[in-house]
Predict the structure.
Amino acid sequence: METLNQSTLDDRFDMPGTHKASTTPDHRVSAGIGNEKLRIAGLSKRYGDTYALTATDLVVQQGEFVTLLGPSGSGKTTLLMMIAGLTQPTSGQIWIERKDATLAPPHRRDIGMMFQSYALFPHMTVAENIGFPLRMRGMRAEQVKHEVDTILALIKLPGIQHRFPTQLSGGQQQRVALARAIVHKPSIVLMDEPLAALDKALRTHMQAEIRQLQKALGITVVYVTHDQEEAMTMSDRICLMNNAAIEQVGPPEDLYFSPRTLFAGQFLGESNCLRGTLQGIDAGSGIGKLQLASGVTLSGRVSESAKVGTNAVLLVRPESVRVNGSSTAATNQLGCTVDECTVMGSLSRTRVTTLDDQVGMIAVALTQAVKPATGGTAFAMFDANDAIIFGDGHV
């Protein structure tokens, strides 16, 4: 990796008060993408022989809310820390506003950061905490006061300028931390599991509040969480990560209804999985036939990972499974025993065990006046287009 001196850094990443022309030395990295705010190209991080992040590419557009989602150790926090400049990459490039920021220090990246711990200065008032990034940029005192008052009104906390963090509730501290992250109007706001410490009710409220504020101001956000529901609720796109790499990127509905891998299908939401052998694929429809150990054959869409004649897994969501007392003309149906039916208000959750293969399945549907009898026999059925067949072991 090349060594850069101070003047080289200033040329690569414009400093406040300068007006250097921005150039893009590598057209492969930032060629012609609309309102591109962030581009990651071949970014990796290695500690000895272990990769915390393998070579990764990602583009984030102006005003997008992109969530890095994944289990512990998937690489999501490592990626966020490299974007922030708090961790140096082993290889690859980071472009912010089409400027190469790969080696720029954090304070020259034009980003805002919001941490799980809030990181408010306990010896500063609310006004001083929020105004800190403005003072560090040399803004005049009267302008700082105006910006602080404006942002406090925006987050619906007027009149608390002179309080200290210890005098605020958890939700108020979270709002102040958010205000400090966005008051200087950064190109990108990075959020590292900022709601993890809140109780469920307050977390749900803050999810909606952050999303509304992000949309209203057109802020570009890169957000880290391990909470699937939070990611589905808040994101324009989810970047699902696993084993130090990106598994799939797309809108929440794409990852939920059209996962590209078995891991993606199992990680997001609930799923029913039935294992067997892929017998064949219809060339016209792309629908494949999966034969279970009992000989029962099921149909579903086939992913790229599944190969004819090999072990495979059929995945179907609980809301796509219907439990009926009698057989119908459904594409896929399995005789089953009803283990339990739980009414959860408007929805009911039914657990069944298939008769031939003894596989447990879950069905979720609108609550009916008469629910399936526990211990009785029934049929679990679903359509071929609602199921996806993956190669077994492709997780």
Residues 270-391 form a domain with the OB fold (Dihydrolipoamide Acetyltransferase, E2P) fold (CATH 2.40.50.100). The radius of gyration is 26 Å. Confidence is low (pLDDT under 50) at residues 1-33. The longest strand covers residues 36-47.
